[in-house]
Amino acid sequence: MLDKIFSQYPTIHKWDRLWIGVILGLIVPNFGVLMIYLLSVANHFMIGKAIIPIPVIIQHINSVEMLTKFLSVGCMLNLGAFFIFINRDYFNIARGIIFATMLVSFPIIFTTIRSWFA
Fold this sequence. Notes:
This protein is mainly alpha-helical. It has one domain. The protein is 79% helix and 0% strand. It is built from five helices and no strands. Helix 2 crosses helix 5.
């Protein structure tokens, strides 16, 4: 019922729902974190250093500065997903991805402003 209220555009696509876009918009930034980890592993492998274990990466992510950087990369990946769905005329999914990107970007904005005044 709420989907009919929030959906301005009637759609012919079965999966063009706002909630699917929100879920995708919250899952895609996690692939950004995974991508950064895999690039880190590849870099350490090429240099010849020991590979950083996953718990150390998670502990490193928990610092505020690194968390905002990881979330920013995830938001860039959401931009790619947004354009894919816009080009295929899945407007409600694209709208959900934008909504999820705004939800993810609030902690980035908050921590950045807080670091300016600290």
